[in-house]
Amino acid sequence: MSPITHDRPPVRRALAAAAALSLLGFINAAPVLAQQPKLKIGMMLPYTGTFAPLGVAIENGFRLGLQEQGGKLGGREVEIVKVDDESDPAKATENINRLVSRDKVDVVLGTVHSGVAAAMVRVTRESGTLQIIPNAGFAPVAGPLCSPNIFRTSFSNWQSGYAMGVEMARRGKVKSVATIAWRYAAGEEAVKGFKDGFTRGGGQITRELWLPFPTVEFQALLTEIGAARPDATYAFFAGAGAAKFLKDYDQAGLRRTIPLVGPGFLTDGILEATSGAAEGVETTLHYGDGIDTPRNNAFRLAYAKTFKLQPDGYAVAGYDSASLLAIGMKAAGGDINRRKELYAAMEGATIDSPRGQWKMSPAHNPIQDHYLRKVIGNENRVVSVAVKALDDDPTMIAACRMGK
Ligand code: PHB
């Protein structure tokens, strides 16, 4: 099929005229018929290290979304350039500069780790390159660092933690909680969110325990939790590190005595690697298993068929990134430089997502339901909606000057 879109008759008329001229020998039609340049997308994701499974799920989701658009965005073929960011903030500036300045990508899709995302937005805010963040919940991106060219399709770390705080407080039985997390932006924000939701409802944080990212030496801290006997433990870990934490928590004999809860990252995409050690763990996230809607069922079937894997919240954010970009590129008629139309369409879009429909906040962060999920076998089974149509941390909303 021709790469020229069907919704642009003037282009077709021009081509027909050019072809006629060519037949008459006036010009060679080949250069005129040359394809529009491909839309170049830089995928900056972790493919090694503790977050590698997350990077793969995001890429899979994005590719499935793209495939459902016929492989084109705004009528243009797509070229993907990949960079493994290793979730290493020290390499992030060089990696994003390579994509933006050397490869001259039109769009950046990335990343997972908040520290890497912080370095990325420093560059894309300056260059004006469109960036879609399919995971990193780094708060300032939808706060003081919000920008017309930066959109997030996942969550803020605060949101996912806050929903669990509200849920725990609502139960009334849980009065004291110990928190344990990797000490970097994401861990701190996910703990703050939980604290805001939980303490507002009367709960108390009795211990805050931290480890440097991405270390997994949990033993001493688990001993401390066992001795302190809080009503529950709230943990922020993800990927391979989360799998190790779940196994260690279980082996320390804590799973049955001190209930373990967390944002959904704690159990997403890694349950096969925990051999049952996470059974019963409760988490909150924008997605979960068993959302019985035609939209979600179709997505899950297509994902499983294509990748021989079950999707998770990371895959959904990757998939929705393709939907969002498709909406923007269509409105811009395939021209990434028609920024006004591109951004207006992305800002106003209702994303018909497997998670349920959602819209961007004025700060470009999803306003979305957060589900309470419980681990049953290898599933994060949705139990209820913990918080409906949740927006972001009020301090971040206030700090973003866009749309005001
Ligand atoms: C983050 O660094 O913001 C982050 C990383 C992994 C997750 C969630 C958030 O699963």
In short:
Helix content is 42%, strand content 22%.
Topology:
Layout (H helix, E strand, L loop, with lengths): L8 H15 L5 H5 L5 E7 L6 H17 L3 E2 L2 E9 L4 H14 L4 E3 L4 H14 L2 E4 L16 E3 L4 H15 L4 E7 L2 H16 L3 E8 L7 H10 L3 E5 L2 H13 L8 E4 L18 E4 L8 H14 L5 H19 L7 H10 L1 E4 L2 E5 L5 E11 L2 E12 L3 H6 L5
Helix pairs in contact: 3-11, 4-5, 6-7, 11-12
Bound molecules: P-hydroxybenzoic acid (PHB).
P-hydroxybenzoic acid binds next to loops.
Protein model, in words:
The chain is α/β, with parallel strands linked by helices and 404 residues long. The protein folds into 2 domains: 39-155 and 292-360, Rossmann fold, CATH 3.40.50; 158-285, Response regulator (Rossmann fold, 3-Layer(aba) Sandwich). It is built from 13 helices and 15 strands. The strands form 2 sheets. Strands 7, 8, 9, 10, 11, 12, 13, 14 and 15 form a 9-stranded mixed β-sheet that branches. A hairpin with a 5-residue loop joins strand 13 and strand 14 (366-376). Helix 6 packs parallel to helix 7. The longest helix is centred in the C-terminal third of the chain and has 19 residues, at 313-331. It is globular, with a radius of gyration of 23 Å. P-hydroxybenzoic acid is lined by residues 51, 54, 112-114, 135-138, 157, 186, 238, 265.
